[in-house]
Write a sequence for this structure.
């Protein structure tokens, strides 16, 4: 099942099932005062709700053109970004897996705007395409082989990360490849947490539709030009290992998001007016626009 | 005013309360429950000026229970964000200020007075340590707050322990990610929120911390490298601050030390209150008790012992 969060013409946000015919609204099916509460109810009650979903039919579907899609995880309790990297053979030379935290303030949805923070010109920002896991919890100390018990579904995410400008300002070259430290972009920087730097969407695909994600291909485009292109199966740490690691440290709750790292190759620094798109096989395509605030004098 | 959450013996129900010299007074009749415990506290923060007369009324007339008769709970049960300063105390050394920097700590790791800090069943970090900190309870939404306007984003203050897994020496495990600070139960906060009007200057507070009665941290927040108004400005330039979010001001590392199985750790911030927790370790690891005196310790005695060439930079320590 593919779930979307949408609104139309100023109506309150509602979850819906995405079908060939459009969106089948779940308005009235889910309770909860905020969309995130509705999502948590959807995740926790999915097994029971599933039979009702089958009975909804598609007769009353809403055309995608009439709806505005919103971030399908609108206010996650936690966003955990792992340092997994994707490259052929990455699993053979892997350093300690680690992770950093973002907050719900990072979230922006399909068609949303990434607002690059106003930092000095020694920093630029790059968009990292990542597979996002929408978690089911509470999940703690989940063994790798049981990883599916902790995952409700998948989404596309973009981790917009600061990166130091390493050559002259005119030469907008990212310092690639990353050090083999397992931290693709070096340091956990405070302004990586800024509002809007974590786009999510366009939908949540339940895990039963992609029970084995190893074959999934993650691609991105910047202004229509291909950027990143990698296979989930080329991860330094597999998705099951990532779930095990994160839940060794902390309890994950329903509606939390784990972003599963990225490839060091292909992403380019962002500029005002850019468009970034990320597509993951079987999940969908997420597109966002970039606004760069005026840079302070360095 | 000192605001708290508490439960009565044998009850799971958590009640809002006001702490006075007479004890704790149940504020259930004034503070309406929201759908979540955190929502209740956020609503209280947002409506505090309206609720204040009624709270003051029950504080002076309501029946008070002795604090020993109730169980205090974390005053902010599940902050939306926990923003923590990296370093941020001079530690009585004469040097250039370091640039202000922050990280995010796992907001689901909250525990409170009387709770237990559980060290993880995970052996990659070499040691776990305590840090005692002043935490600012925020009022929002607030974005791009000027230093001069810092009080507009502050609701009050509470105590906080930044429990930390170490990689090597006193550097946080997970170099560059601060992950060693985000294990479950590594975020004790409490015992109460002292509202901002009762604390004229958050950079003049005396912070003490004991481990099994042994004094470890003992510092005044006047030693803060980047002071509270600057912290508000810095954090709000990057993130929208919301009611019930926390900014933790960092610790003075002179009193750093290990936490281990069976110990009781206690923080006292004068003007806020005292909170004690137990420590449990399923692996029963042991480290030398006492203040951390390793090669990279900033404890003055350790500096004189390990790095005598830096001893002339140390300034006299004042406490209260």
């Amino acid at each position: 099942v593919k779930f979307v969060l949408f609104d139309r013409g100023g109506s309150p946000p509602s979850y819906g099932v995405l079908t060939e015919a459009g969106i089948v609204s779940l308005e009235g099916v889910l309770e909860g005062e905020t969309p995130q509460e509705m999502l948590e109810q959807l995740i926790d009650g999915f097994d029971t709700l599933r039979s009702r979903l089958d009975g909804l039919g598609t007769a009353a579907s809403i055309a995608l053109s009439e709806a505005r899609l919103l971030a399908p995880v609108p206010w996650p309790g936690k966003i955990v970004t792992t340092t997994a990297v994707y490259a052929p053979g990455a699993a053979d030379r892997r350093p300690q897996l680690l992770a950093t935290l973002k907050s719900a303030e990072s979230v922006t949805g399909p068609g949303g705007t990434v607002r690059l923070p106003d930092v000095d010109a020694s920093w630029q920002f790059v968009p990292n395409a990542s597979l996002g896991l929408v978690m089911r919890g509470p999940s703690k100390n989940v063994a790798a082989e049981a990883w599916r018990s902790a995952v409700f579904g998948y989404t596309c995410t973009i981790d917009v990360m600061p990166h130091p400008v390493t050559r002259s300002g005119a030469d907008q070259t990212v310092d690639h490849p990353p050090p083999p430290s397992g931290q693709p972009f070096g340091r956990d920087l405070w302004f990586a947490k800024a509002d809007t730097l974590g786009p999510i969407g366009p939908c949540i695909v339940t895990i039963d539709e992609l029970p084995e994600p190893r074959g999934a291909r993650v691609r991105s485009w910047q202004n229509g030009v291909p950027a990143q292109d990698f296979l989930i199966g080329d991860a330094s740490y597999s998705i099951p290992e990532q779930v095990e690691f994160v839940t060794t440290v902390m309890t994950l709750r329903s509606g939390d998001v784990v972003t599963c790292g990225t490839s060091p190759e292909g992403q380019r620094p962002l500029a005002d007016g850019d468009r970034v798109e990320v597509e993951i096989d079987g999940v969908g395509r997420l597109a966002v626009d970039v606004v760069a605030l005026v840079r302070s004098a360095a | 005013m000192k605001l708290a959450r508490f439960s009565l013996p044998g009850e799971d129900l958590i009640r809002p309360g006001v702490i006075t010299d007479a004890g704790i007074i149940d504020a259930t009749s004034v503070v309406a429950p929201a759908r979540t415990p955190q929502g209740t506290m956020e609503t209280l923060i947002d409506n505090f000026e309206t609720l204040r007369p009624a709270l003051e009324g029950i504080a002076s007339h309501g029946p008070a229970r002795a604090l020993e008769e109730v169980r205090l709970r974390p005053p902010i049960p599940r902050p939306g964000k926990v923003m923590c300063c990296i370093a941020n105390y001079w530690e009585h050394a004469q040097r250039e200020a370091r640039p202000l920097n922050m990280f995010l700590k796992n907001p689901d790791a909250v525990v409170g007075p009387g709770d237990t800090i559980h060290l993880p069943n995970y052996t990659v970090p070499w040691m776990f340590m305590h840090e005692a900190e002043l935490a600012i309870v925020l009022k929002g939404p607030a974005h791009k707050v000027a230093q001069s306007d810092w009080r507009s984003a502050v609701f009050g203050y509470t105590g906080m322990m930044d429990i930390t897994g170490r990689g090597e020496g006193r550097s946080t495990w997970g170099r560059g990610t601060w992950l060693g600070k985000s294990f479950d139960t590594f975020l004790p906060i409490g015992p109460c929120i002292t509202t901002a009007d009762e604390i004229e200057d958050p950079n003049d507070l005396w912070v003490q911390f004991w481990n099994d009665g042994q004094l470890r941290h003992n510092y005044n927040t006047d030693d803060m490298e980047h002071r509270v108004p600057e912290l508000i400005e810095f954090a709000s330039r990057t993130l929208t601050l919301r009611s019930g979010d926390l900014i933790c001001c960092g610790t003075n590392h002179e009193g750093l030390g290990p936490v281990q199985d069976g110990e009781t750790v206690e923080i006292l911030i004068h003007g806020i209150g005292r909170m004690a927790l137990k420590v449990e370790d399923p692996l029963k690891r042991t480290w030398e008790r006492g203040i951390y005196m390793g090669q990279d310790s900033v404890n003055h005695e350790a500096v004189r012992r390990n790095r005598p060439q830096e001893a002339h930079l140390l300034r006299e320590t004042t406490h209260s």
Q: What stands out?
A: The longest strand of chain A covers residues 151-164. The interface with chain B takes residues 33, 37, 77-78, 83, 96, 98-105, 117-118, 140-141, 181, 183, 186-188, 190-191, 193-195, 248-251, 253 of chain A (CB under 8 Å). Residues 277 and 287 of chain A are 4 Å apart (CA to CA). DSSP finds three helices and 16 strands in chain A.
